[in-house]
Amino acid sequence: MTFKKFFHSVLSVLFCLSLPAQSAVILQYHHVSETLPAVTSVSADTFTEHLTYLQEHDFKVLPLNELLTRLQQGESLPDKTVAITFDDGYKNNYEQAAPILERFNYPYTIFVNPKLIDEGKGYVMSWPQLRELAKKGALIANHSAQHDYLHRKLAEETTEQWQARIKQDILSSQQRIKEEIGHDYKYLAYPYGEFNNQLQDLVTELGFIGIGQHSGAIHTDSDFSRLPRFPASGFYSTLDTLITKMNARAFPIKKLIYTDSVTTEDLPQISIQFNMGDFHKSQLACYVSSVGQAKLTWTSKDTVQVQTPKALGKGRSRFNCTAPSIKHAGSYYWFSQPWVIVK
């Protein structure tokens, strides 16, 4: 290689490395408690450890509305951008999480179930408590009326009846949040992280962004009816593994093909067409929860078919695909496909 070619090659690499990020990560929490179910909880000490890592490693913690608006508008974000979210609005968010977040001056979002608040359930925050947090900068958003499985039809319920019922659930919950808090952010965190094609279509039709619980980073070309978040509680709260997720990048995906996230097929598969360039095909690895390594078949230079080698059991499962970035040392691309296997 001549010196001129070498010089231009170095300039090209430096330019790519200096570009603002197109990816961001949303973290998902439930309880900050040492007495509630460990699977959905982190202790106050562990939660503080997470925030300390973000602070000491120069992460930009943005309010969820700013992050999503900028991505939808195609704007670049600072590298290492993160948003913090909580599901269900538990009282320990007010008692334990909020004071810690306030010390770090970090914004956050709480997804609540308005019907449960109106019924005075003792384990969730009250409207006055939520208003207090909102005045300090917390965003309050929609998690459905009472945490039902929104994609499920009732016995003998038609598709039209289901659509009307779920539309009423989402919009009435949104109205209650607007009445009590003043917020009208059209974000819906799917209860249990479960959604199917029909629910995604309905959420989009209502003008909402749909947010799941499957792992992965987000970027400008993400499907805003099924945005991923990294769970950071319970088994997933260990900082050693969470660091990799905090630094994750969104795969540049041209096309994603699958039948439905909620399916009777116990051997589901997906086809992913990538914008190639920043990872090696040989380093793409996909895993099936509770099964092991997935079968990968490259059907073209940029398209891979991902299959489970073993039938999935009833309930929730995932395909998790990762590959190390070529340009960003220590950073991994991450994509997750959630499944709900039903009879």
TrEMBL record:
Lineage: superkingdom: Bacteria
Main location: secreted
Alphabetical keyword list: Hydrolase, Signal
Top-level enzyme category: hydrolase
PROSITE patterns in the cross-refs: NODB
NodB homology domain span: 80-343
Assigned EC number: 3.-.-.-
Signal peptide: 1-23
GO molecular function terms attached to this record: hydrolase activity
Annotated localization: Secreted
Xref: CDD domains: CE4_DAC_u4_5s
Name of the protein: Polysaccharide deacetylase family protein
Annotated source species: Pseudoalteromonas neustonica
Source organism phylogeny: Bacteria, Pseudomonadati, Pseudomonadota, Gammaproteobacteria, Alteromonadales
